[in-house]
Design brief:
Strand content: 5-15%
Number of helices: 30
Oligomer: single chain
Subcellular location: Nucleus, Nucleolus
Shape: elongated
GO cellular component, one term: small-subunit processome
Number of strands: 18
Largest sheet: 11 strands, mixed
Keywords: Nucleus
Pfam families: Utp25_C, UTP25_NTPase-like
GO biological process, one term: embryo sac development
Length: 758
């Protein structure tokens, strides 16, 4: 199974949360800026407002009339004050900010239309001096050539290839397609999202975690399914003649790729509609995506294309903005310091370069995503895809569209596996590695795979891969994980598969995003957006969670760890259930047990089993009793209970060694062991056909609805064809996926406690 078992082990010691920064600690950190580095910051607490620097603006009508007012300095002002002790010009500018009470000027640099005759300027940059003093960093930043991408520079960064501003040709395309006013409109979602300044009242409201879903619209090509969201609906009143806010070159390439796939009516397609939701920069939870390995190739690819184009668009626009600012500053060297300090137009970067993080569970899925990313990248930006040979060697080079389709040749039939086709597509061959990380860097003419994380624009990783890096950093074995400090788009795809691994890894990764870094990493501090310095970056991060079904852990992450000020969009759907897919005439008896809270649910389930179900098993002489269990923790509790009762049983869980599996299956089939405990994750990772099942007891319903018919089919050799299922009202999400939404509502609300399906 490769490294997949490692992902499921619970042996890791859970990383402890550090204490939150107090206001006094923030002030101390600012004073220590003279020592040329940040003081390491700790994790931000989700429920505490103490981590936020209070920014009281006491300006009232007097400020509007031009009177001198006092404004309490922000963290950004404190950093300027530190720099001012070494630079007279900086000090003068800071004094003007404080006395005049002048607010930063909002300038939409991205929306500016440069004339088509403007030539591409070259910037000559020398190597970066890592860990240089803040004052030296500022001086370098004034030169307009050292800090092109707001990150630690190396020789390969400061080149012509790194200038990603629009070319003359692209500018002509834009001017020919629409007016200047229209161009400003289509770029507004990117600029408006990042330029918005949150007030303390808005932050306090976000921390309450109460979201009002005010609109509802039908989901494209999905019956009884709706998108619900806060704020304004992003898929209504769209201008079909616009580029939807996409860079013209990228938009044209996207259309070409769509036409090549023989798609029709692009403006009404699923991927265009989902892109519009992504482009709203709201947090998104799509929990009914049909995965590619269940013959949902078209739907899965549409969603994938949409979020990849959104990510590319965000990266390219960010780089364009920084490049344009570098040009403007280079042309006005005499007033560079004053322009930076007295306006917000040149605050265009975060602490580090990476802006997009894509979390994926398995290397086979990562191969599919990255290959498609390469295809969607405009040709001009991928004239050279560096390290593609290494990528194909490590991740495979199969076709993203055809590699999962069955080969009907005689050769393939002779070697046909007994595993289901969806298992082969997801976990077969070399797909099951769950420990990987890869950085991707975009330049003007090339795309570099395996770039250093600090020089990458996008990071594609597994939760386990990042979890290991975080653990090493905490133990002092690795320098740091500060490249996670400036993530502006987080995409968690195939979250349902991550549930089958170890969801705590995902939680740990999300908790470590958007923290103030421990080191400078060569960033020009004068160009960092103020909300980064004020510890507010998590309120600007867009999180997109995609999966085939909803789970309480996924729901909790979306509701408790996603604080995007733009709001949320989520899917609301009804399920038909999977009972019609059961081909056998099995009598399925659903027994509901009562529980008062989620904390007592496990105890109540075990108590009901011990009093109502186990006595029947104990009194029966019939062997072949399989007990299916969803959770490993329930597996352990039930194992201990059976031991205490002296029962004859065998274990088949996710940690059962490969060499012992055949022995366990044989003992159960021959009747040497009366009971088998079988877990959902064991079924997910092995998918063996278990023979000898005479009586099936589903102790807890499976997370994955497609497993239910497979488990029930184990009764095909049984004489009585009976299946007992235990559930509570808290199991509603799983129950509706199996019996259907309408039946599930009746079952959890009915006064009766026993329901029979035949």
């Amino acid at each position: 199974m490769g490294k997949q078992g490692f992902a499921r082990k619970q042996g890791f010691k859970r990383l402890s949360k550090a204490e939150t920064l107090s206001k006094e600690e923030n002030l101390k950190r600012n004073r220590r800026a003279n020592d040329d580095k940040f003081t390491p910051s700790s994790s931000q607490s989700d429920d505490s407002g103490d981590l936020l620097e209070e920014r009281k603006d006491v300006a009232s009508e007097d400020e509007e009339s031009g009177k001198i007012v006092y404004r309490e300095p922000s963290m950004y002002d404190n950093l300027l004050k530190t720099l001012g002790s070494r630079n007279e010009t900086v000090a003068n500018a800071l004094r003007r900010r404080q006395i005049e009470g002048k607010s930063d000027t909002d300038e939409d640099v991205v929306g500016d239309i440069e004339s088509s005759s403007e030539s591409e300027e070259q910037h000559d940059g020398s190597g970066n001096d890592k860990g240089s003093p803040w004052s030296n960093t500022f001086v370098k930043g004034l030169k307009g050539s050292e800090m092109v991408d707001g990150m630690e520079l190396s020789e390969d960064v400061v080149t012509d290839d790194d200038g990603l501003s629009e070319t003359d040709e692209e500018s002509d395309v834009r001017l020919n397609c629409q007016s200047i006013s229209e161009a400003s409109v289509i770029t507004s979602t990117f600029a408006n999202h990042l330029d918005y300044k949150l007030s303390k009242e808005e932050i306090d409201h976000l921390l309450i975690r109460k979201w009002s879903y005010s609109w509802k619209t039908p989901a494209f090509n999905m019956s009884k399914t709706y998108w619900r969201g806060t704020g304004v609906c992003p898929v209504e009143d769209l201008d079909l003649d616009s580029h939807y806010g996409v860079k013209p070159r990228l938009y044209k390439h996207w259309l070409d790729m769509y036409d090549a796939s023989k798609g029709s009516e692009f403006h009404k397609s699923k991927q265009r509609l989902f892109f519009s939701i992504c482009n709203s920069y709201q947090d998104i939870m799509h929990h009914n995506k049909k995965p590619f390995y269940l013959k949902g190739q078209e739907e899965d690819s549409s969603i994938m294309d949409a979020y990849l184009v959104h990510s590319l668009n965000h990266i390219l626009k960010s780089k364009d903005l920084m490049t344009k600012n570098e040009r403007k500053l280079a042309k006005n060297q005499d007033i560079v310091e004053d322009k930076i300090l007295n306006g917000s137009a040149y605050l265009d970067r975060g602490f580090t370069r990476p802006k997009v993080l894509i979390l994926l569970p398995l290397a086979g899925i990562a191969r599919r995503i990255i290959t498609r990313l390469i295809q969607l990248t405009p040709s001009k930006n991928k004239a050279d895809v560096e390290n593609i040979g290494r990528f194909n060697e490590e991740y495979g080079s199969g076709s993203t569209e055809d590699q999962y389709e069955e080969d009907d040749s005689e050769k393939s039939k002779s070697k046909k596996s007994t595993k289901p086709s969806d298992f082969q597509a997801l976990l077969g061959r070399d797909n099951n590695n769950d420990h990987f990380m890869i950085g991707i860097k975009f330049t003007k003419k090339s795309m570099r795979l395996y770039s250093d994380f600090y020089s990458s624009d996008m990071i594609v990783a597994s939760p386990l891969g990042l979890y290991t890096k975080i653990g090493k950093a905490e133990d002092g074995k690795e320098e740091d994980v500060d490249y996670l400090s400036s993530i502006e788009i987080l995409i968690i795809d195939h979250a349902d598969v991550m549930i089958m691994q170890n969801w705590s890894h995902v939680k740990t990764v999300v908790e470590h995003l958007n923290q103030i870094p421990s080191k400078q990493h060569g960033t020009d501090i004068m160009r960092i957006r103020p909300w980064y310095l004020d510890g507010q970056s998590r309120y600007y991060r867009q999180t997109i969670i995609l999966g085939s079904h909803l789970n309480p852990d996924i729901n909790t992450l979306f509701n408790q760890q996603c604080f995007n000020y733009q709001g949320k969009v989520k899917l609301e759907c009804s399920y038909k259930g999977v009972l019609p897919k059961i081909m056998l005439q099995v009598r399925q008896i659903y027994e509901r047990f009562d529980t008062t809270s989620i904390l007592e649910a496990d105890d109540d389930r075990l108590e009901y089993f011990a009093k109502k179900v186990f006595p029947k098993i104990k009194d029966s002489v019939q062997p072949g009793v399989m007990i299916f269990i969803s959770s490993y923790f329930e597996f352990v509790r039930l194992r201990n209970f059976l031991k205490s009762q002296g029962a004859s049983f065998c274990l088949f869980g996710e940690y059962t060694k490969q060499k012992d599996i055949s022995s366990v299956r044989g003992q159960f089939f021959r009747g040497e062991k009366k009971i088998m405990l079988y877990t959902e994750r064991a079924h997910f990772y092995y998918r063996y056909k278990i023979r000898g099942v005479q009586n099936l007891i589903i102790y807890s319903l499976p997370e994955r609805k497609e497993f239910y018919p497979e488990i029930v089919s184990f009764l095909e050799e049984s004489d009585n064809m009976n299946c007992t299922v235990l559930f509570s009202r808290l199991d509603y999400l799983r129950l509706e996926r199996i019996v259907g939404s309408a039946a599930a509502k009746r079952m959890v609300n009915s006064e009766k406690g026993i329901f029979v399906f035949a």
